[in-house]
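Whether sequence alone determines local backbone shape is best considered at the level of individual chains. For completeness, the protein is quoted in full, as a sequence line and a line of structure tokens:
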Amino acid sequence: MVRDWRRFAYAPMYAQNFESYSMLFSQLGLSKALLDTLDGLHLTTPTPIQVQAIPPVLEGRDVIGLAQTGTGKTAAFSLPILHRLAPGKKAAPKKVRALILSPTRELSAQIAKSVRDYGRRLHLTSTVVVGGVSIRPQIKALASGVDILIATPGRLMDLIEQRAVSLNEIEVVVLDEADQMMDIGFMPAIKRLLAMTPSTRQTLLFSATMPKEIRQLSDRHLKDPVEVSVIPAKKTADRVEHSVMHMQTPNKMGALAGLIRERKGERVIVFTRTKRGADKAVKRLDADGINAAAIHGNKSQGQRERALAGFRAGTVPVLIATDIAARGIDVPGVSLVVNYELPNVPEVYVHRIGRTARAGAEGTAVTFCAPDERSLLRDIEKMLKTEIPVEKAPEGTYVDALADPDGDFAPLNRNSRPRQGARPQGAKPQGQGRKPGQGGKPQGQVRKPANGQQAGKPGANRHQPAAAANQNGDQPAAAKPRRRKRSGDRRPRPEQGGDKAVARG
């Protein structure tokens, strides 16, 4: 029965229309203990990536799994790993039998929870090690050996250097979200870690995309891999009802508050480009009576966990996140994603809006586009091969003043009159606003970006994510943080990945 995966994995009809074929976990060759657990979790039907990946993993093959977020990749590798390890010997002190590498704390925590949930009937041990928290409890947890270790690369390297763990008896290695780990700057650490593992290991690589660097990594470290790729019945972007609202930057906060009030009681994720911008958005929404929390690389692990817990429980309906910090957030019931600022890389747009279209569900995404962001919008539309519908901002949400001199949000004006009708793209709004203590200035005038570039013409390197400190509290080996301070320039800098490096030892 295990070998039946081949006819499902590569059948053209199935690849084109996954929804037309119904399969059960019981047909994939998993143990009874796992099947009973899945049944108790009310999980009977695997997703397409699970159908394709689980059987070859059970056969001991190296696997490359290509699928977008929200498609069930975690179960695709954790279930067969649990199946493989259950009947074997236990891990020796400071040894690990299976290693799962992930780019962020949040994703690591979610993988660890899934491993615990799926393996509750098995007598296997697991632990998670990430940066941003004390290393001593992690050293203690590894002392007696761990069957399954979920880790971020930087913290694992710290633990290896302190001789708290050895990788020389590993049976399986998983590289989850490999493209994201590459973007953060973890590739040198990953190569070093793979070199510390036995050549006989089984290697599983899962990624949303397959850039050249990831392909080279797989060619060097995977043995005759089976490549499985899902073609969803509907692309993530097609499952989301998305639209764009054109407005001046200082109008965004009022529009955001109005949009959230219109969707009262729903879970909303808002994306900003900077950590400072996320924090300021939380403060402004709080002042307007809207409960929100921020999650980004400068937040402690405890702060991030509390924010996510409140968001999942519904006590905090709005989560403000940066792109890297949001990787791994998998909260059901998110009905709205707001792109408060457009991403510099078009592909990130799909990852963002995918937060609201999980496991085949529908969702809504709204993008706020300022005049100097229109080239970014065109890049996204080019990638999607379609124009994003234009929608007017919520009634009564415009503000009357321009941003203050240091780039902060303009004050919310509860008494501002609603503007009637949608403003044509590029048109200047009527009337004039005033900066505090200054003379009048046309509201339609676009401020020159702080980097000296013309509006609507981002720099040539905007499609190249910078490798820098990641948000797990670890410093990637290839990353060299850039310190740039300009006198009088208080404009928030783009987030480069996250926390400052945690002192070792």
User: Anything to note?
Assistant: The radius of gyration is 24 Å. The domain at 236-414 is CATH 3.40.50.300 (Rossmann fold).
